[in-house]
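Q: what sequence does this backbone want?
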């Protein structure tokens, strides 16, 4: 038995989980826990400037490691309410963020105490589970529960409240359990009958396509997906935000599908006769829930680890509740050696030629000489300048949404976006978390000027903890998506859409980071290289034409005459 305070026990539980980094903002409610980090060599505590951005860091860290990301909100009330946006984002991405939050002393609950808010009610809709530690002796048990729930399929965020008197109290603790004593050791496979039925559908398909989603990307299971695609000679499309599920350059990788994808990948899903959806919900960003973006006549085989996602938006011919990579391997084995089919070869060869022509035209049409810089030239310059082993983070917003399928992702699990939450202000902080997880990998974060302005204070964190990311601010001096809607649907009645910002390169230097200004595409390559080599966090302020606006959601305004 070991005698510890509740705060010490909580930190010991993190050590048992082999947590390498904790992102946190100190507060009096959890001061005993922060004190327990003092002198720790097992866990690096990164002090953040805001709990929201700290949660994005934990989210980026979780996605980059494939394990949990931990955020510690030191104060109850406002310190905890600041977690809401970050945990909502993590929930949309099925990211296993473990949020630990200070809470009122148990004797003060329901007394309108200082900074009192019902933290369980607040987080219930946006987490897999939220609850409060009931007593000091149960701290390790509740910490185990937090990690067990966050990491079990389908992964997602949890939020645990730690009352200040429980952290301050002491108890005798037995030996802490190892994680493998309370984790599942396997994922579900598909029953043999379902595999045989799915294999038969694929065997007889004339225009098969595989849609690879987060269920392929997150476990880095591209090899299983590619092996199946090669057996079928079927093209692979990826769901938006998961363009890195399959390495760029593989002949069967068509890129991202749907309204925010490219025309080649989107056509494949609109014309396929059999669609194998591997680890994807076929949700909003992929389809807008519309048969405008998927063939209504196609037979759909949907494989999902979350049973409620199967057939939710589109009727399926075969629904398989199982682990997507496991099913990919099962199908490859069941198909065996397939004889070449003329119809399938013609379908895939046509796609390959279209894909080559699309990529060639994308470069040929890029205007690299325009002044101010226009998006097509910027993206061409970035494709040439970015290292192939880079980890990329994106915000939402019109510029970043265009970037999603405009870059080439060579390394599986290298693209982290807000996905369906559509959050502006995610990218820079998420990049810092990804850098903590991957210190030897170049991390490039893309923001608009609005999104970077929301989170710029974390430059202090980046400099203090040597999280040397490169942030590219695509500065078009406006909230681009909304200004485009005002242009296209509201007779150019511009209001609240234009932004005035300081020179971000100079602001970065004031924080102790490196700053660069780019006004022509020809300057971009040198700026990126200098930023990567400067040995400190870097910001590249890129002046983009404010009139180069693009409306992504034109369907949102169909109701307007």
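A:
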């Amino acid at each position: 038995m070991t005698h510890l305070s509740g705060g010490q026990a909580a930190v010991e539980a993190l050590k048992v989980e082999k947590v390498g980094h904790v992102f946190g903002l100190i507060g009096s409610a959890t001061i005993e826990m922060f004190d327990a980090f003092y002198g720790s060599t097992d866990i690096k505590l990164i002090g953040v400037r805001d709990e929201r951005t700290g949660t994005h860091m934990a989210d980026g860290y979780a996605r980059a490691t494939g394990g949990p990301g931990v955020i510690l909100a030191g104060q109850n009330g406002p310190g905890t309410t600041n977690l809401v946006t970050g945990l909502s984002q993590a929930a949309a991405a099925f990211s296993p963020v473990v949020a630990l939050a200070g809470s009122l002393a148990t004797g003060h609950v329901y007394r309108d105490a200082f900074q009192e808010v019902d933290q369980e009610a607040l987080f219930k809709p946006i987490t897999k589970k939220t609850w409060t530690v009931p007593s000091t002796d149960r701290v390790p048990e509740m910490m185990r529960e937090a990690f067990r729930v966050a990491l079990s399929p389908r992964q997602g965020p949890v939020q645990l409240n730690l009352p200040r008197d429980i952290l301050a109290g002491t108890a005798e603790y037995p030996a802490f359990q190892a994680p493998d004593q309370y984790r599942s050791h396997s994922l579900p496979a598909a029953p043999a009958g379902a595999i045989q039925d799915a294999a038969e559908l694929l065997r007889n398909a004339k225009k098969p396509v595989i849609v690879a989603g987060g269920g392929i990307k997150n476990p880095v299971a591209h090899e299983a997906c590619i092996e199946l695609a090669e057996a079928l000679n079927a093209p692979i499309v990826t769901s938006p935000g998961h363009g890195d599920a399959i390495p760029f350059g593989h002949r069967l990788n068509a890129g991202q599908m749907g309204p925010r994808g490219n025309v080649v990948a989107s056509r494949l899903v609109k014309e396929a006769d059999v669609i194998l959806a591997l680890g994807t919900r076929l949700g909003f960003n992929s389809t807008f829930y519309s048969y405008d973006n998927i063939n209504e006549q196609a037979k759909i085989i949907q494989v999902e680890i979350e049973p409620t996602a199967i057939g939710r938006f589109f009727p399926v011919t075969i629904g398989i509740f199982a682990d997507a990579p496991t099913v990919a391997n099962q199908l490859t084995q069941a198909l065996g050696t397939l004889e070449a089919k003329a119809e399938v070869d013609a379908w895939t060869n046509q796609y390959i030629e279209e894909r080559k022509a699309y990529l060639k035209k994308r470069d040929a049409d890029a205007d690299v000489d325009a002044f101010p810089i226009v998006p097509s030239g910027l993206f061409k310059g970035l494709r040439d300048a970015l290292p192939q082993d880079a980890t990329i983070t994106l915000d939402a917003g019109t510029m970043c949404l265009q970037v999603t399928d405009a870059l080439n992702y060579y390394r599986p699990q290298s693209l982290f976006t807000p996905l369906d939450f559509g959050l502006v202000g995610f990218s820079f902080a998420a990049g810092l978390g990804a850098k903590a997880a991957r210190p030897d990998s170049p991390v490039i974060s893309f923001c608009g000027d609005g999104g970077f302005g929301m989170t710029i204070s974390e430059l202090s964190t980046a400099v203090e903890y040597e999280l040397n990311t490169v942030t590219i601010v695509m500065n078009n001096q406006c909230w681009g998506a909304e200004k485009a809607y005002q242009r296209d649907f509201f007779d150019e009645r511009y209001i609240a859409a234009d932004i005035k910002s300081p020179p971000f390169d100079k602001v970065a230097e004031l924080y102790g980071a490196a700053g660069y200004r780019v006004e022509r595409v020809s300057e971009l390559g040198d700026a990126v290289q200098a930023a990567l080599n400067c040995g400190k966090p870097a910001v590249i302020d890129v002046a983009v034409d404010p009139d180069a606006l693009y409306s992504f959601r034109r369907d949102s305004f169909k109701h307007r005459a």
